[in-house]
Write a structure and sequence with these properties.
232 residues, alpha/beta, Rossmann fold, Arc Repressor Mutant, subunit A, 2 domains, 5-stranded parallel β-sheet, 4-stranded antiparallel β-sheet, elongated
Length: 232
């Protein structure tokens, strides 16, 4: 899952980021309110950790605009302003949780985990299905239902296949895939997209599934099911 930290205290943002990465989350940081808002508004983040006092644009304004625009990412507010009125303002504008500074990093991690666990229970199935394929969300494994052959997936393979199976038969541009799976600033690593898609195709073929991920010239990629056709 992907998390965005919008926090202008560099040392605090870095500590939070490193702690979340140890929990296997993908993390991006923005130190400016306006920059953070533009990234958050893409809707690619599962959770946003949002400071209130920020340069360019404060956290309450960011929160209000995101909710008005239909961004449903979980949002945890961080602030040195811990009065009841401040908390109520955050909740009234759509915050999911509110942590006054200073705080213990263990408490923040627990709250992040709780928010994302709740989101998973509501929005995700343990198994994603597409024709003869089943993707086990808990085991990171892929199964062909016609023969019960199963193969394990590594991190990026799993994230890519999850994204395609949640957007089956839709054309996904390279930019959409880069933003969702690698993040907006990892252009060097995201150039490995073709290699990872090749790995996925080989694993799908290895379990004899008829699903394929095809390149759509000039547009991106699309997951399709290929029925066997009678040869004349």
């Amino acid at each position: 899952m992907r998390i965005l930290i919008i926090e202008d205290e560099y040392s605090l943002a870095d500590v939070i980021s490193e702690s979340l990465k140890k929990e296997k989350y993908m993390v991006d940081i923005r130190y400016d309110g306006e920059e953070g808002y533009f990234d958050a508004a893409t809707g690619i983040y599962d959770l946003i950790i949002l400071d209130v006092m920020l340069p360019s644009m404060n956290g309450f304004d960011i929160l209000k605009k995101l909710r008005e625009e239909g961004i449903n990412s979980k949002i945890i507010m961080l602030t040195a302003k811990g009065t009841l009125n401040d908390k109520l303002e955050g909740f009234n504008k759509g915050a999911n949780d509110y942590i006054p500074k200073p705080f213990h990093i263990e408490e923040l991690l627990a709250r992040v985990n709780a928010q994302l666990k709740n989101a998973s229970n509501i929005n995700k199935k343990d198994i994603l299905e597409y024709h003869d394929l089943e993707l086990d969300m808990m085991k990171s494994s892929l199964t062909c239902k016609t023969n019960n052959e199963t193969i394990e997936l590594v991190c990026k393979e799993f994230q890519l296949l999850e994204y395609f199976m949640n957007n089956k038969e839709q054309i996904l541009s390279k930019e959409q895939i880069y933003d969702k799976v690698w993040g907006m600033e990892n252009e060097i690593e995201s150039n490995n997209l073709e290699a990872y898609l090749s790995f996925i195709r080989k694993k799908i073929k290895a379990i004899d599934s008829k699903v394929n991920i095809k390149a759509v010239r000039g547009l991106g990629y699309k997951m399709e099911y290929e029925d066997e056709k009678v040869k004349k």
